[in-house]
Design goal:
Layout: E1 2-4, E2 7-9, E3 12-17, E4 25-30, E5 35-40, E6 46-54, E7 73-82, E8 85-90, E9 94-99
Antiparallel strand pairs: 1-2, 3-4, 4-5, 5-6, 6-7, 7-8, 8-9
Length: 104
Amino acid sequence: MRRLGYILLTVFTTILYCSETVGMPKRIQFSAGHTTEYLYDADGRKLRTVHRTAVPNMSVPLNQTAELDATNTLGKDSTDYVGSFILRQENTRDWTLSRIALYV
């Protein structure tokens, strides 16, 4: 991430899309090595989001991806979407359960 004045600018290098769900991103690779991955059900509903934070000074060239493993990952958190509930796990230790407020 680069700071530009008061604007936080994040540059991504690659977006991979799901072949089963048209137009839905499967994985976003950021230039600093961070990744965001998505999992969907057959109807295209988002089931899970996983964020991985890369070690400092990692760089991923445009249109390429880098696999993050234990040696080059600072942190990992995930969010599961189950019906109207959101379950967040940060750094594989703490779980937080939230309920989505639905307004009609």
